[in-house]
Write a structure and sequence with these properties.
The chain is α/β, with parallel strands linked by helices. It has nine helices and ten strands. The protein has helices spanning 58-69, 109-115, 141-150, 168-191, 195-215, 229-248, 260-270, 281-289, 317-323, and strands spanning 3-5, 8-10, 34-35, 42-43, 49-53, 77-80, 91-97, 104-107, 127-130, 135-138. A hairpin with a 6-residue loop joins strand 7 (91-97) and strand 8 (104-107). Helix 1 runs parallel beside helix 3, helix 6 (229-248) crosses helix 7 and helix 6 crosses helix 8. The radius of gyration is 20 Å and the shape is globular.
Length: 324
């Protein structure tokens, strides 16, 4: 994908692999923070912020999940973008009026240059936009979900805290383990440029999934009896694994369906109220396998597999075990 260079779009790809051919995800540029107490220039306010996401992107999916989990649908508005053949990165289906302006745009990168006319950056989802100052607040998913978790608490309905203080050390360690061994390893399988780099990512991915399978045989969620941020950071890759990653990213040693604990755990999370509604699996497949997707193909989207994520799961057994 191209990027912005001194405020102008270029189709030249940003370097995304190291000298050994291994895919490397470049860091996000915009790292401002919304605060509940007004300590930053971006105070938490209803109707002020707009989230840009994409159905096909697992990183953006994190923020869409949190928008539901934290009951922010009436607080933070949402627009999905997509990739198009011959387009300039993430594209709006119809001309989009930028919140806080009367400007109509076709591409997400146009927002970046409204905020900074000389911007040099990848243009990524999620992107969190401030309609009041007409600036990009943040485009790092891990930081956006933390803001959604804690900073809108005074203007949104009560919800669980997915980053409780007593579990933060364990959540952070689990996040780092999953980031390297699942998130980055899946991308390494699908986007690396040498057989050796692919094999390295493949081995790491399935060693990590084996470890998570064993861990989930002892407890309901990754960090104990309650859902935490660690679960919702893993979920976007699990829901995409069998229909997308197994085929398109060559992660084809085992499916999630082949792991008893991981597959039951995935259904448990999927059946959390509101989550199924923001898991458009057919849209995920279309965004990856379609003509403008990241996987080189003929544009034909696979019809399968059929997986019923609403069938019963066994994760309630841990509640019964605790009661006994």
């Amino acid at each position: 994908m191209g990027h912005l260079l001194d405020g102008a779009w270029t189709d030249k790809d940003v370097l995304t692999e190291n000298k050994n051919g291994l895919y490397v995800k470049n860091p996000s540029v915009f790292r401002n923070r919304i605060t509940a107490n007004g300590a930053s220039e971006f105070p938490a306010e209803a109707g002020r912020y707009h989230l840009y996401a994409a159905v096909s992107c697992p990183w953006a999916h994190r923020t869409v999940l949190y928008r539901v989990l934290k009951k922010l649908e009436g607080v933070v508005t949402l627009t999905n973008v997509a990739q198009t053949v011959g387009g300039q990165g993430w594209t709006f289906e119809t001309d989009h009026v930028v919140p806080g302006t009367d400007r109509r745009v076709k591409y997400l990168h146009e927002l970046y240059t409204i905020a900074d006319p000389s911007c040099t950056s990848r243009v990524t989802v999620p992107t969190l936009w401030d309609a009041k100052t007409c600036r990009v607040v943040n485009n790092e998913s891990s930081e956006i979900i933390r803001m959604f978790n804690s900073e809108f608490r005074d203007i949104a309905p009560p919800t669980p805290d997915y980053y409780p203080e007593h579990l933060r050390e364990e959540i952070d360690a689990t996040n780092a383990f999953v980031l390297k061994g699942v998130n980055d390893a899946v991308n390494g399988c699908g986007r690396s440029f040498t057989q050796e780099a692919y094999a390295q990512s493949f081995k790491l991915l399935f060693e990590t999934l084996d470890t998570l399978e064993a861990r989930l045989g002892k407890q309901r969620y990754l960090c104990g009896a309650a859902q935490t941020e660690a679960d919702w950071r893993l979920f976007p890759n699990l829901i995409r694994f069998d229909p997308v990653s197994y085929i398109g990213y060559k992660c084809n040693l085992r499916r999630i369906e082949d792991y008893p604990n991981l597959s039951n755990y995935l259904r448990d999370l999927y059946q959390t109220p509101g989550i199924a509604h923001v898991c458009d699996i057919e849209g995920m497949k279309a965004g990856v396998f379609g003509p403008a997707g990241p996987i080189k193909s003929n544009g034909i989207v696979p019809l399968g597999p059929y997986i019923d994520h609403m069938r019963p799961h066994d994760r309630g057994r841990f509640v019964q075990m605790a009661a006994e």
